[in-house]
Design goal:
9 strands, 25 helices, elongated, 2 domains, two-stranded antiparallel ribbon, alpha/beta, Transcription Regulator spoIIAA
Length: about 575
């Protein structure tokens, strides 16, 4: 029999071009131009905040954005660099350099492709919500903390990477505030805040950059004042098409670098998968569509494999740009492709203008990004929920801020699993019944009173029999003088894991050794297949594995009479 393995790769571009007409094209072009304009300051800001530069941010938005639109599983997803990756990318660049970042991004891309190939798209979406809120809020705080140097114009050349050391450094240099920088940064924030109140179409971040760049240019031209550092003062400006190049590790051994970067690559892949699929899900709700999560993961993976060879950084689906695309009429991947063309034109022809953007203005843009990411309203509402969810949220948030996102996600997931197991254990009940029992048969109203024959006891398991509950079952089965005949009622056991099978097998073997009889009742097909594979059915005999409690009690009565004789 041939294995049934099919690849779920169906790019939306192919399907949306069927019946494509001029009216749809014009809407997509307009949406693509607007999204491209929105993406310019964000791509530049994310590239600089990540410790690379404006060119790398734009290159990522162009190449990754094109691949995600051309090959992705969503009609309207816009791909590119996002704020979520700033913390990770900055840390990798500081420790391993640009070559190490490229290796980590390629590895993450391969992991994303594998997730899509093995159809894990639907599973990724079940990441516990408190973890998502926690690490997103932690990233927001970290982004905010990285922008204080530029916002205040402190001029610190080497800002420490660690959170507390970073703030200690800021306070040590607080006397060096550049009031021009602070004024420009605060003015940029105010423009971003109030622009939507005047016009929903005009992106506030772009307007802030245009106004503040023009203001600084006018000061320099007419008053001879160069108030703050600009992008051109600190970074090499974009010029021409990016060239293909292999990652350079500067003499570091490739294999040991790969081993060191594997946890980071896994974090990038998980974060990219979560963010892109959440963005696609939100978009589906707005446009009444349905994305293909496995295709989306593979497209994100291909984008992250290709982009580093042109100097790019990790990319994923960007919910803010995706919503801008939808709100301006984009309905097919063509809009996303147009947005990358706009960015390419900026990279080729507007490098000089990019260089004139003041750094405090970019700091203001990123501070507003961090505010929008923080989700403080969500955190406030979640604080009214269960203590376990609050613990997961704040543990993930604090670990993201103090340590890094890799540790935060690993610990957050571990904590979520432990609390999930505890909740299942609390809902799973095991009771021992003798003499009589009340049962509710499916499809019938009211309880039915049944008499348990003398010398028979019933172990009723309500819930899955897995490692968290199996020990409880074993303890209850051995804590008292056992009856000669023991019925294990399993109609509410939805599944059984290896620990549950092991403990059930020990229970049966111990009973059979001392001459006791064991009957299983109400075993569903899935559980039956599991116990049959490990030989439990054979040990008991099929006549002692019965469909319901009535048959089990009748069989127990028969065995009791045989024991008496």
């Amino acid at each position: 029999m041939k294995p049934n393995f099919s690849i779920d790769f169906r790019p939306k571009l192919y399907y949306t071009l069927r019946g494509y007409d001029r009216a749809k094209l014009m809407k997509d072009i307009m949406a693509g131009i607007i999204v491209g304009i929105v993406a310019i300051p964000l791509a530049i800001a994310f590239g600089i905040a990540s410790g690379v530069g404006p060119t790398e941010g734009l290159v990522t938005a162009i190449i990754a954005g094109f691949i995600v639109s051309a090959l992705g599983g969503s009609r309207v997803q816009i791909g590119g660099p996002t704020g979520a990756f700033i913390v990770i990318v900055y840390g990798v660049v500081q420790q391993f350099g640009l070559g190490g970042l490229a290796i980590a991004t390629i590895m993450a891309g391969i992991l994303l492709v594998l997730m899509g190939l093995f159809k894990l798209g639907s599973i990724i979406k079940f990441m516990p919500y408190p973890i998502i809120v926690g690490f997103t809020a932690g990233i927001a705080v970290t982004i905010f903390s990285t922008q204080i140097n530029d916002l205040l114009g402190l001029g610190i050349e080497k800002v420490p990477a660690e959170f507390f050391e970073k703030w200690a450094c800021y306070f040590e240099n607080i006397g060096s505030i550049n009031w021009w920088a602070l004024g420009i940064g605060l003015a940029s924030i105010l423009i971003i805040v109030f622009t939507p109140k005047i016009s929903k179409k005009m992106p506030g971040s772009l307007l802030a950059i245009v106004v503040m760049t023009a203001f600084c240019w006018a000061l320099e031209q007419f008053a001879g004042i160069h108030p703050v550092a600009t992008i051109g003062d600190l970074y090499e400006l974009p010029s021409g098409l990016p060239s293909f190049r292999f990652p350079s590790l500067d003499g570091q051994p490739l294999w040991s670098t790969i081993q060191s970067l594997l946890p980071t690559a896994f974090t990038i892949a998980m974060l990219g998968a979560i963010e892109s699929l959440l963005s696609a899900m939100v978009a589906d709700g707005v446009i009444s569509s349905r994305h293909n999560s496995n295709t989306e993961l593979m497209a994100q993976g291909i984008a992250n494999i290709v982009t580093p060879f042109f100097g790019g950084i990790p990319a994923t689906g960007a919910i803010a740009r995706t919503m801008a695309n939808i709100n301006n009429g984009g309905r097919t991947p063509v809009a996303g492709i147009v947005h990358t063309i706009v960015l390419l034109l900026v990279l080729l022809f507007l490098g000089g203008l990019v260089g004139a953007i003041p750094m405090p203005c970019l700091a203001g843009v990123l501070i507003m990004v961090s505010y929008n990411m923080s989700g403080w309203r969500t955190i406030r509402s979640m604080c009214r929920q269960s203590r376990s969810d609050i613990a997961i949220l704040f543990t993930t948030m604090i670990l993201t801020i103090v340590f890094d996102l890799t540790i935060a996600i690993e610990v957050g997931l571990a904590l979520a699993v432990v609390l999930f197991v505890r909740r299942i254990m609390e809902t799973s009940k095991i009771s021992v019944l003798r003499d009589e029992m009340d049962v509710h048969h499916d499809g019938e109203e009211g309880d039915i009173h049944l008499t348990i024959p003398k010398g028979v006891e019933v172990y009723e398991i309500n819930g899955p029999l897995f490692f968290g509950v199996a020990t409880k079952f074993e303890e209850m089965a051995t804590m008292r003088d056992a009856m000669p005949i023991r019925i294990v009622r399993m109609r509410k056991v939805s599944f059984i894991d290896s620990t549950g099978l092991h403990n059930l097998e020990i229970f049966i073997e111990s009973a059979l050794k001392v001459g006791q009889k064991v009957i299983l009742s109400g075993v569903n097909k899935r559980v039956y297949n599991s116990i049959e594979r490990v030989g439990i059915v054979e040990k008991l005999g099929k006549e002692n594995v019965l469909d319901n409690i009535d048959l089990a009690l009748a069989r127990a009565e028969q065995l009791a009479k045989e024991l008496e004789n």
